[in-house]
Specification:
Isoleucyl-tRNA Synthetase, Domain 1; binds 5'-O-[(L-methionyl)-sulphamoyl]adenosine; 18 helices; 13% strand; 521 residues; 7-stranded parallel β-sheet; alpha/beta
Length: 521
Amino acid sequence: MSKRFYITTAIDYVNGQPHLGHAYEKVIADVIARSRRALGEEVFFLTGLDEHGQKVQQAAQADGKSAQVYCDELAASWTAFVGKLGLTNDDFVRTTSSRHKEVVQAILTKLHVEGHFYQASTEGFYSTKEETFVTEKERLPDGTFPASYGEVVKLSETNWYFKLGAHQQWLIDHIEGNPSFIQPDYRRNEVLGFLKNNTLEDLCISRPAARLTWGIPIPFDPAYVTYVWFDALVNYISVPAARGDSTVLAATNSQLSTLNSQLSLWPADVHVIGKDIVKFHAVYWPIMLKAMGLPLPSQLLVHGWWQKDGAKMSKSTGNVVDPVAVIDDWGLDAFRFYVVRELDIGPDGNWTDAGFAARYQAELANGLGNLVNRSLSMLKRYRSGVIPARHDELAADAAKASADTVKHLRASELQAGLHSIWTLVNRANQYVDQTAPFKLAKDPAQAARLDEVLYNLVESCRVLAVLLHPFIPGTAAKIYAQLNLSATLDKLALSVWGGLQPGHVIGEPAALFPRRDTPKA
Ligand code: MSP
């Protein structure tokens, strides 16, 4: 059983509706998953929901529902959201599922038996919002704690702790020795700076059941439930365990009863996460894995945060972007294209409705859409839709665009991939202007030249469809359908010039991205 390319997203808290930030992360993971499949790899793409913890318990209480009913209801809208984004995930994890809980408990039991945990009491300040004790170091000069912690209360509690001390140096060595482990580089440097300048405090992995019931019971001490992050991170291996991954099963001593397959998934190739949860993934998760005897994931790919109109998105101020509304208004591919094209994976981004409309108009409607529509329409009008003899005037441009796109996709450089694709869009549009096929069509002596030009244009559209498939699959499929090609276009190898056969008859051209005069308010 060969190992699959295994890619994951963060699992979203189920205490609200999906927003732009969630949508962005899932789309970039999907583009990477589709790219890898298009490069010929077998892929397993996992996303899902983080359903335990105080936030969910409180949200359910506020709604007057049991936590499970609350989660089940919201899970339905989150799974619908996955469909709305066109994700090609192979599984969807919910941390309240028994297959997940079993693995969390198996790990806790094993690490407990092996002496990684101890019980201690702490008196300190506790943030309910972040579900964590806040240290004195974090106190602001005026004596208060940062607003991000919400209400901070004094608490004295006995809990279970995970010993981290012995792990600090090897983790530093691992991060230094594997530069691609945390990307982009500036995120790696932040983690290294943190690890080199602080002594890791042991991680509190329990919460008293008297205070928080909505969690996975600690198997060796029923007075406690599992800290939500210890529970959530395990999703990345609980699904492989449930899918029969022997590496994970052996290390966790899990005895899952119903294995429906025997996939080889772990270690993950990429965990796609946002910048706010780097510490959990770059410090706690590697240490948890090391303690379990499991290999570390190959890469944490850390994306930035979106703002709207230069300000933090927030439900309370109404400053939000509802991805579902944007998709309903503009179409899924316009949304997928915009978020990947606008924001490279790493820095923060800023959504403006005007910026979205401008890219739609310039790059999708006037750029790609116009190229495909006029190329196919001219072939239809001047040659009854019949592909002329092959001609290679744009072959080198197409080959360069393909090679660059593939190189960028291999490195998960998605924005750069779109740049490469648009060099061909722009070159082909320029070629229309330079060769002026509408003039050639008026002169019977130029018939052979018109054939050449039309072949180059229509074949360029076909190549573009293949390259665009990971990013905007619906549009790619429409281009193929308009070309009357039935082959599935899910392999980048199909971008080799010359795919269109002379004599083939194309289908009906139709606008891919209708022009819109004014952006809707
Ligand atoms: N449940 C945890 C993750 C556990 S992973 C084992 C969590 N959930 S979350 O719903 O708060 O966030 C999910 C993801 O969405 C995170 O990667 C987070 O960075 C991302 N985003 C949340 N808001 C965002 C923006 N405004 N912009 C971009 N991404 C953002 O954290």
